[in-house]
Amino acid sequence: MSTVDKQLDEIASTITNQLPDRISVTDVTYEGPELVIYTRDPKEFARNGDLVRNLAGQLRKRITVRPEPDSLTPEADARAAVLDVIPDKADVSELDFHEDTGEVVIQAAKPGMVIGRHGSTLREITKKVGWTPEVVRTPPIESSTVSNVRSFLKQEREERRDILERVGRQIHRDQMSDDEWVRITTLGCCREVGRASFILSTPETRILIDCGDKPGSDDTPYLQIPEANPLNSLDAVVLTHAHLDHSALIPLLFKYGYDGPIYTTEPTRDLMGLLQLDYLDVAAKEGRSPPYESAMVREAVKHTIPVEYGDVTDIAPDVKLTLHNAGHILGSSVAHFHIGDGYYNVAFSGDIHYDDTRLFNGAVNDFPRVETLVMESTYGGRNDYQTDQADSEQRLIDVINETHDKGGKVLIPAFAVGRSQEIMLVVEEAMRKGEIPEMPIHLDGMIWEATAIHSTYPEYLRDDLRDRIFHDDENPFLAPQFNHIDAGQEEREEIAAGDPAIILSTSGMVTGGPIMSWLSHLGGDPDTTMTFVGYQAQGTLGRRIQNGWDEVPMNGGRGRGGTLSLELDVETVDGFSGHADRQGLENFVKTMNPRPEKVLCVHGDERSVQDFSSALYHNYNMRTFAPKNLETFRFK
Amino acid sequence: MSTVDKQLDEIASTITNQLPDRISVTDVTYEGPELVIYTRDPKEFARNGDLVRNLAGQLRKRITVRPEPDSLTPEADARAAVLDVIPDKADVSELDFHEDTGEVVIQAAKPGMVIGRHGSTLREITKKVGWTPEVVRTPPIESSTVSNVRSFLKQEREERRDILERVGRQIHRDQMSDDEWVRITTLGCCREVGRASFILSTPETRILIDCGDKPGSDDTPYLQIPEANPLNSLDAVVLTHAHLDHSALIPLLFKYGYDGPIYTTEPTRDLMGLLQLDYLDVAAKEGRSPPYESAMVREAVKHTIPVEYGDVTDIAPDVKLTLHNAGHILGSSVAHFHIGDGYYNVAFSGDIHYDDTRLFNGAVNDFPRVETLVMESTYGGRNDYQTDQADSEQRLIDVINETHDKGGKVLIPAFAVGRSQEIMLVVEEAMRKGEIPEMPIHLDGMIWEATAIHSTYPEYLRDDLRDRIFHDDENPFLAPQFNHIDAGQEEREEIAAGDPAIILSTSGMVTGGPIMSWLSHLGGDPDTTMTFVGYQAQGTLGRRIQNGWDEVPMNGGRGRGGTLSLELDVETVDGFSGHADRQGLENFVKTMNPRPEKVLCVHGDERSVQDFSSALYHNYNMRTFAPKNLETFRFK
């Protein structure tokens, strides 16, 4: 009998002893980090809400109760009963019964009304029919990504359960080593931006944090070094957020034999899938052979175990993970690792925004304990201060008004995820408040899809924005001014020839995508203002236009090769960034509770990490490091 | 066709083009770091001494010429011819013909006379008989270790050649990576003394430097971490010297799948075998199960490729190794690694003695290039200054005289390798010069055997000592006063009951071995002086006696359990150390040519490495580090 089986046997008898005799326990297993209790008396569990809470507290585990099939009300009867319990205003769009697990997945426009006060409606459902309800939100804007992910996971339920059981046994295995240490190995994004990847290791456990690409370069994380191998012996992958410089090469891990879990937030899982598939698409369009097939993206999604902000999750015998809001993009996280029983704590900042933005609350920097912080330093340079957000917004409003007065269009190249939604919120509010005239706002490229994903997960947005979406039905993303460009060139031509409008289009650095087509339509129009709201990297067309080039090469487009003479105005509005600036980074560390002993400054160019590392050392008297790639630091 | 075969083909045609038509080349292969040229015309090669030298220079390889069997004078005729060429005074004790390689191994008391001026006698032999002579020294004191190693290697010739061919192909494989970096991973002996072990790695190559135990502890190097695995993919092991805290666990590598070469000096190979077998013996006697069997020690010896001081040796496609005298014990080395084509240079000090001692020249610290030095710090503490050697010697002489005057014995616990021979030289000289009276000097335990190995390799001893052994037949180790205790308890009893004498016996810290027996015979004798000449570690009986204990527990001995009351005098004579003191360590770095940019201070307790690291930083403005175990540093 394996040690995990012994452990489960002991837990089963503890549970049986704790529960009243009338409640049966037929089996106890692990699924991923959770302990699953099978019973013939699901209704009794639902009637005694404290039972599970008490067991969870005593066993220090997350617990799921699962009914045995024979204790369930048959599906047809159950369907009517469930709909009867849920208030109509919840607007249920789908009920999906899974007999294997006794779960009923309820998709509703208002999940809160399905859940009820402190989960009362959910318990009511189980009391009536025995089934365990699971609630998901009906996306208020239809997102093909979300619906694809959901139907894919539904189709793969069985394999996914096998994976979770295997992972569960791995997590709860006995500790083997008497030794104690904590190490971090840098596989990328040290003294550079891009290819974020780290290994956190103990004598028991190895965890990969992020696995990104490096934009504008073929460099990949150093996955081939012994510290990362064999990949299939890694215990877990933790993904801080979906941007490709953190996520692009995660599917590659599965190609090379990794078969374990990915811990991340649910929106990050969906955005990751969207961006990885786009990454393959772009590679194919540019004639590069992509490093993996789309099947590997599906593997990644299938192996993802979603974690909510603040939930303490066992991911290895000696490691607990907690994700916290990082304020950077939807679902972005600061990853906190608690190692051993109070032995050591490490936080990886991922990419952060310290102050609140229109979209997100500021990054969390309050933890029970932290000894070492691995900290992004993108804008860590001594002069990396950004314009105040209010000033930036006013400047954008001025540009829009000036352009509208001329009768022209505002053409904004923007990244699909994050920046676009921020601009949408600014423009929607300005229009609502009458600070700019009413006019259509066209969204081209992946922006619409990314926005749909945002509005599927309002819990991950800033408090007041979430409340507007939840309670007041004032979802700003549903404002009628927004138009999704979905009819291709014809629609674009019509818009280009028409009245004043605002156009947001990818790619954000004018390196491809529909913005190229907009440029060919509007580039010769002196009334149009091309407005840059994000960083334009060296070597991109965006940077060239920003720098005043007025002849740009146009390959393809509507069959026209050659060059295009730009007549449009060019404006740059700074200050819309998903990253904390130097002050924000410093504030994150300064106000961090508790203040870490050591800080590894990463994810910034050489100058930024050196500046930031030395500033933290001098101003706050911490031990700071500016690691190189391929180094290993030992703590304790 | 593999790339190595292609490479050999190209080399073969280069060689054929270079050689006169009359000299045939039948095959070209690699054996370890050497290029082997097979020919039917060995005599022609011998007649044209410059041919091989020119080829070696052009190809930048070490070259061995091997005759095809059919070009050789038959063994019986050849034996007479060889003996005819060699002067009688060379005192040949053995001729061993190996038809597979066309080599004849000549064991002689005077190898120099077999070699002749600039190798003239060797060439003469080949010119006459075609065979390639290889010369080894007849040990002037019979060493069972040396003779066992030699006969074992003779018996394993065939397998050894297979190993060398395999290693040769590995060394000369094509480089695969475009990447360039150099890393050092610490597996042991950081902020501690013991379990020395490091990995030097590049994108191509991983080399393990040392693999020792930690005396007084069960701690072993961190061989289980991914950086060291799989062990069979390590390219090479380099051993700086034979002491167990550097060599004890090398046989374990073979148990765990390593099957590659060990590069070290020839005397280190022999001493390593001696000490490892003793290590197993001690473990067995103490009832511990040893970590490996003696068969693994034989594997280690079989896989050793001896390297001479100063020889630049290819050990990987991108790494050249050169060993230099370290002055610490017989065969001890500073290991210098030249990486890439001028890309980077790292030196590992191993254990060093900076100043000349009676036995050895001081450590070499002159290199073509060195960017990083990994430096021992045993006596790196701010107060770790040792007594001047002349004062120490005088003190020892005084103790001997005082004891002799009382009619007693001087009982010296000493380590078999190094310390004992140093004391032997002091005492022999003092006696020769009349500074102490003539009396027998008894050598007990492994001391005699270790001394025999020293006198087999006079090239590795201090210049003037070597010259005395070579040229003047004044081998001090052969002085008639020295007596090897080889008749056990009876002999000891007789000596203990007899006239004044000096007794050197292992173990050096009175933790076991024949010193325990001497203690039981002489412990109650007030005329005996127990004289400590080496460091006594915490917790050893030696340290207790040094501290004034006069009741010591005696387990076993001549059947007597219980305690022994000590009546003998106890003296400590400092200053006989194989290690540089703080001044010596600093001088090694200060006068090093070139001065390294970075120094990793290792092999010292926490205080010593911190003191030494900070002193080097402040006094010489170098980047210094005091690594922990399990860290990885990247250079370039």
Automatic annotation (TrEMBL), chains A, B:
Keywords: DNA-binding, Endonuclease, Exonuclease, Hydrolase, Metal-binding, Nuclease, RNA-binding, Transcription, Transcription regulation, Transcription termination, Zinc. Residues 5-72 are annotated as: KHa. Residues 73-140 are annotated as: KHb. Zn(2+) 1 binds at residues 241, 243, 328, 351. Belongs to the metallo-beta-lactamase superfamily. RNA-metabolizing metallo-beta-lactamase-like family. FttA subfamily. PANTHER family: CLEAVAGE AND POLYADENYLATION SPECIFICITY FACTOR, CLEAVAGE AND POLYADENYLATION SPECIFICITY FACTOR FAMILY MEMBER. This is Transcription termination factor FttA. The gene is fttA.
